[in-house]
Amino acid sequence: MRMRILESVPQTNGPVVLPMLPDSVIDSIGKYWGHNIRHDAPRREGELTFENTHAVWAKLNAGGRVKKSAAEHKKDNARTGSSFYPPIFNFPSCKQNGGIMHTPCGHTTHFWQSVSREIRAYMSGKEWEVRMSSIGEEVMGKIKEISILLKEANTMSEIKVVKRDLFQVRKKLNNVMTQECEHKELHVEEDRCRNKLSKLTEDLDFGTYNLIQAGLREFEVILKARPKKESKRAQSDLEFALWKTIES
């Protein structure tokens, strides 16, 4: 965007070498032009690498043992750049469309998809499909059972104290503050409370129940969507083994 603005400057007698304009000037030009200047996204280097941002995400969530609201999830997501899972290959990806292996790889993919379709036809009506069609009620029962245990675990004094402190800190953060240092101190205190809560979830059954409940609810969503959607998601244990073998 900056280069386009510089290139649009009229050149009367040959090229004009202009110094780099200050950010405030660039922003003013963009405002006058009617287009907001969007700065380049930060590179995935140093603290912003997928490995490091995922480490922050894992710490904030204690491996999924901490239950959060939608607002808290959105805030942590923005802080870590959607690094929910650790990178399988920790180096920048590079794809060349139309490269020497583009066509062969495409044909190979279509071949394995044809194998996958044959497996689906073969496994239709088999034990796996029958089991998946009747497991919904069992999952619902497990969710109710875990919810009762989780409710009891939330009454533990250690957890109630930390949650109360965290609530008070966030309440103060929502108030209007005139001192920047006060705002920073509250954020530090919020992280301290969250770290303490994460530590408790690792040592107590409270965190394990959160993890089990989250897994069951995710499984419930998949079960509800499975009969209605035609997707690439594996429809049987045999098809699942096929794609995992290819990925390996």
What secondary-structure arrangement, pairings included, does this model have?
Blueprint: H1 2-7, H2 23-33, H3 50-61, H4 70-80, H5 102-123, H6 127-134, H7 136-153, H8 157-173, H9 180-203, H10 205-225, H11 237-247
Give an overview in words.
With 248 residues, the protein is an all-alpha fold. The protein folds into 3 domains: 2-33, no CATH class; 49-80, no CATH class; 106-247, no CATH class. Helix content is 65%, strand content 0%. The model has no long low-confidence stretch (mean pLDDT 78).
What's the quick description here?
With 248 residues, this protein is mainly α.
Unreliable stretches covering 5 or more consecutive residues: none
Number of domains: 3
Helix content: 55-70%
**Rg from alpha-carbon coordinates:** 26 Å
Given the helix and strand composition, which structural class is it? mainly alpha
The residue-averaged pLDDT reads: 78
Range of strand content: under 5%
Give the CA-CA distance, first to last residue. Answer: 42 Å
| Series of secondary-structure elements, N-terminal to C-terminal | HHHHHHHHHHH
Largest sheet: none
User: How many strand units?
Assistant: 0
Shape: flat
- How many helices does DSSP assign? 11
